[in-house]
Specification:
Blueprint: E1 3-4, H1 12-26, E2 37-42, H2 48-59, E3 63-67, H3 80-89, E4 94-99, E5 115-120, H4 126-140, E6 147-151, H5 158-169, E7 173-177, E8 188-189, H6 192-198, E9 201-204, H7 220-227, H8 231-235, E10 242-244, H9 257-260, H10 267-286
Parallel strand pairs: 1-5, 2-3, 2-4, 4-5, 6-7, 6-9, 7-8, 9-10
Helix pairs in contact: 1-4, 1-10, 2-10, 4-5, 4-10
Bound molecules: phosphoric acid mono(formamide)ester (CP).
Amino acid sequence: MRGLLTLRDLSTDKIMELIKYAMKLKKGFRISYPDKKIATIFFENSTRTHYSFQCALMNLGVKVIDCNTHTSSVAKGETLYDTVRTFEALGVDGVVIRHSQDEYFKELENIQIPIFNGGDGKSNHPTQSLLDLMTIYEEYGRFEGLKCCIVGDILHSRVAHTNIEVMRRLGMEVYISGPEEYNDNSAEWIPLDEACKTMDVVMLLRVQFERHQEKMQMTVEEYHNKYGMTVERMKSMKQNAIIMHPAPINRGVEIADEVAECEKSRIYKQMTNGVYVRMAVISDALDGNL
Ligand code: CP
């Protein structure tokens, strides 16, 4: 299949190539595809991924077709395959898809046009990981030996699962922290206060209530005090260490209001980098390389 479905399909050399291409685009390099059309099809809510893909497409001169899944024939029961096959038949050159089903793309093996995964269930969020990696690389100029702790609702997080796998391949030490109920043992668990003092990157996650079967076992205040990035925890971090979060953020839950835009926070830089990473991925695919 063409496009970008999971980072597991990409070698570390290819990942570095895409990050460096995104950095070149951020510096002003321009390439244009005015004859191409790409559809964005979001079955789950999104602000960053949906609209940064659209910004990336506009920056590349690609025409954007935004499929409204509430007013399209999806609402009449059309399958995902038939929806995507329809866009392919209409002459669209690629589709961006977000879907709540893990690995939904396995149903789309007959599709010939590139598919860009904007997130599937709890499994993959490849362009989010690439923008996270770009942000870390801009900060440190390397991955080897860096320590990152991902904090929070690991169990339900496609961001955590994608990042843990790819960060390890790039030579980073990855840990997890947060409530025991969200620990899926996908990495070594360490206490948050220890993580804040020792990590180069502390990556916070939102509690993903929409994917929970049961109610969280504590109040949001308890969560914040035990597992949130408070001002005190931020001050205990190493001088050059950074705070990341894929967002949307819940101020006062996993991150204090005052910390969200503090000097150590790279949260809004991550969003900016998302546009360039998505430009790089789309351009590479339209050039026939992905
Ligand atoms: N980080 C991220 O995926 O945000 P959205 O859900 O707003 O796209």
